[in-house]
Design a protein that fits this description.
59% of the residues lie in helices and 8% in strands. The chain is of the alpha/beta class. A ten-stranded mixed beta sheet has the order 3-2-1-4-5-10-9-6-7-8, sandwiched between helices. Helix 19 links the parallel strand 1 and strand 2. The chain starts with 17 loop residues before the first helix and ends with a helix.
């Protein structure tokens, strides 16, 4: 690792619970709670924070930005880590953070796909960061020996790194407790190095504090160099499964470590600005060795920092992989434990292989920024998870420490902003990898044994949107189809669903109501059975359709009741789709229902399906323009919506009407052509002369090759002869292919939808 390389921070992950050990293919753990706040949380966290960057980069940051700029950078960086620490504290006091640490938090809040999208890259980043830290240790040894006149070859350096990796992995395989105890020695070495720094002095200090910098780098570049120094604050979260009292230890230990790190990082620039000029700080990365009272202790501190970070990653990477395996997101064999059931031995072996590959590769600089992005994305999503859970106000989210949602959400935004200024290409690469994993897991549709907060988050979003819609004024130009489709078993009458889905697509809501007649007590079992049978099938075939089964006393009045009660706030059905009746005994009830639906101000789509011709090859739609007020706009919109769907895309649309003479024909043709042009619809206007022919015969001959007809009608008045009304319409339907009969609602105004943009541009 080159001296200007910023190693990625390495957050830890907790051990698995007994149940998750078994799920991952290993023996259940003993469930012993071994560590308190200091050993289990504070120590690994503060050792991760006080890392190599403290020795090699704080001086450069102070020289570039000056004391004032350095303090500002440190405070801004810690605002992000404090927000993340508070988010972790809030989640930890609500529930036990289980296996996988940060992965567990994200997956249990944002779902398994989001957890995998972060967890899998996080494991790789943790494993490869072991190589970073060990190579960093070896390079500092080479510098130390170089001062003594001993030069090591590249091969010798790789040998030292490999031996150290074997020793650290062996120690971790034997016992995590042993690794934790080893970190006490590291803490002592870092503490002694800090004493050596602050007890040292400069032989020629500047005459005044170096408030301004002497560098040429921008503020964002200097901030990007420093920020990884304060990451890795989740090291203590990784020990939650082994803490005696995680709800107390995680908040206190994490925030205490952040506080200590803030004090040290603020003290160092002040001390450097008092002792060294900005120019010297910019040009000498090893200035602390020259200023300290015991330079050898600085080497001990650097060695301790690199070794402690390596130990942290060696402990956490296998546990992250083990948690992923326990949830079935990677093969479960990868989560197997050792014979004692204490350590994830398979995960440790894979971590060793990846780290050794990194050591042998030698130069990992080209992937370092991407690894840093995965760590930062983890912190960002942790903040997001906490903020969304708090905002959603789910009854199950009752943390002892209540953090305002805005703090977590601002912390999340800050994390993603820092990612962009550190390296935008690396950010995009990391996001692309995570997005690929997310989509892969989402498509697998894995059933999980754990719940997450997504339902509560979506519910809160829906509530917020409904409240906003309630207060928003509606303009006809914003009309979109919210359709109720009413029928029997959707498998027996699939055309209703297909027409409904084609009309609505992603523009509105389509709800299919399967109505059962009878008493609730008699049909409740049928209702449950149908919901269980149909929901999964429809979700797979038509995922955009909401399926409901309702029990009604009488069918036609049930349709009216469902229509007027459906919806919430300003989101209600504005159109109803039904099948056209074929039996004469149903005509009166059907007509009464249509009139009631008209009074409820719903547009009607009534489907007369030709069981012989069906819908042909969906290549031609004929609109029969009858002149009924309001129907014309709705029929044109219906044809547009259908041809915009996948199955009807490219269909030819003909708008046809019948007139008595040539003079009417020319005027009507000009009018229709103007309407279609103004509406920007790809359709052909055709005006037909009636002559001596019957209108039915004209419709039959002209639409003989059509796949669908759209016909506008008026509804019968109460004193109309119902049999004669249906006979007249059925006679037309006999001459047509499958037909959608249209009747627009009284308040429907299609002109703003069809013509508003054309008028504005003219």
């Amino acid at each position: 690792m080159s001296e200007d390389q910023t190693p990625p921070a390495a957050p830890s992950s907790p051990t698995l619970t007994a149940a998750e050990h078994t799920e991952a293919g290993g023996a259940p753990s003993s469930g012993q709670r071994r560590f308190g706040t200091f050993a289990g949380v504070f120590t690994p966290s503060v050792l991760t924070i006080l890392g190599v960057i403290m020795y090699l980069r704080v001086g450069w940051v102070t020289g570039q930005a000056g004391l004032l700029g350095a303090i500002l950078i440190i405070l801004l960086a810690h605002l992000i880590t404090i927000a993340t620490g508070l988010s972790v504290s809030s989640i930890a006091t609500n529930r036990e953070v289980g296996a996988g640490g940060a992965y567990n938090i994200i997956s249990r809040s944002l779902g398994a796909p989001a957890g995998a999208a972060i967890g899998i890259p996080l494991f790789l980043a943790q494993a490869l960061s072991v190589a970073f830290y060990i190579v960093g240790f070896t390079e500092s040894v080479q510098v130390f020996l170089g001062g003594l006149g001993v030069q090591l070859s590249i091969a010798a350096g790789k040998a030292i790194s490999s031996v150290l990796l074997v020793l650290l992995c062996a120690m971790s395989a034997r016992s995590a407790a042993l690794a934790i105890k080893a970190q006490y020695v590291v803490m002592a070495a870092i503490g002694l190095s800090l004493l050596a720094i602050f007890s040292g002095s400069s032989s020629a200090p500047p005459t005044e504090l170096q408030w301004t910098g002497a560098g040429t780098e921008s503020f964002s570049v200097v901030f990007a160099v420093f920020f990884p120094a304060v990451t890795g604050i989740m090291a203590g979260v990784g020990m939650s499964g082994d803490l005696k009292n995680p709800r107390r230890s995680l908040p206190i230990g994490t925030m205490s470590a952040i506080g200590v790190g803030l004090v040290v990082y603020l003290a160092l620039p002040v001390w450097l600005a008092m002792n060294v000029s900005s120019e010297e700080l910019v040009n000498d990365n090893y200035i602390l060795w020259q200023l300290s009272s015991v330079p050898a202790l600085i080497f001990l501190g650097v060695w301790g920092a690199t070794i402690s970070s390596a130990i942290g990653s060696i402990l956490t990477a296998p546990r992250t992989l083990q948690a992923l395996a326990g949830d079935g997101l990677v093969p479960r064999v990868l989560g197997r434990m050792d014979r004692a059931g204490n350590e994830p031995i398979v995960g440790l072996a894979i971590t060793f292989v990846l780290a050794e590959a990194g050591i042998l590769l030698g130069d990992l600089n080209f992937i370092a920024p991407i690894l840093t992005m995965f760590f930062l994305a983890t912190y960002g999503l942790t903040n997001l998870a906490c903020g969304l859970e708090r905002w959603a106000s789910s009854p199950s989210f009752r943390p002892a420490y209540r953090l305002p949602a805005v703090i977590s959400l601002v912390g999340a935004l800050a994390c993603f902003y820092v990612m962009s200024i550190i390296s935008l290409p690396a950010m995009l690469a990391a996001m692309s990898i995570s997005a690929f994993i997310f989509l892969l897991i989402e498509r697998r549709d894995l059933g999980t044994t754990f719940g997450d907060a997504r339902h509560g988050i979506w519910s809160a979003l829906v509530r917020s949107a409904l409240l906003r819609l309630r207060s928003a004024s509606f303009h006809p130009e914003n009309w979109r189809p919210n359709l109720i489709v009413l029928g029997g078993n959707p498998i027996k009458r699939p055309w209703l669903l297909h027409f409904g889905s084609a009309i609505v697509q992603d523009r509105g809501i389509v709800s299919y109501f399967h109505l059962l007649t009878g008493a609730v007590r008699d049909r409740a079992a049928d209702r449950r059975r149908l919901i269980e049978e149909m929901e999964s099938e429809l979700a797979e075939r038509l995922p955009g359709v909401f399926y409901r089964v309702d029990i009604v006393a009488e069918l036609y009045q049930g349709v009216v009741s469902v229509t007027q009660s459906y919806g919430l706030g300003n989101v209600e059905a504005n159109a109803v789709m039904l099948g056209w009746p074929s039996q004469e005994e149903n005509f009166q009830g059907y007509a009464d229902m249509l009139r009631d639906l008209r009074e409820l101000d719903r547009s009607l789509f009534l489907v007369a399906y030709d069981n012989t011709r069906k819908v042909g090859n969906r290549s031609r739609i004929d609109i029969w323009w009858g002149g009924f007020p309001g129907n014309g706009s709705l029929m044109l919109l219906l044809a547009y919506l259908l041809t915009a769907s996948e199955k009807w895309r490219g269909a030819q649309v003909n708008v046809m009407t019948v007139v008595e003479n040539e003079l009417q024909r020319e005027a009507c043709l000009d009018s229709l052509a103007g309407v279609l042009e103004a509406a920007r619809l790809q359709a052909q206007a055709r005006v037909l002369l009636r002559g001596e022919r019957d209108v039915r015969d004209i419709m039959k001959s002209e639409s003989e090759n059509a796949d669908l007809a759209i016909l506008g009608i008026g509804l019968p008045d109460p004193d109309d002869n119902i049999e004669r009304y249906f006979a007249r319409i059925n006679r037309m339907l006999e001459a047509l292919p499958t037909t959608i009969i249209v009747h627009s609602a009284r308040t429907f105004d299609g002109e703003p939808v069809l013509f508003s943009q054309a008028e504005e541009s003219s």
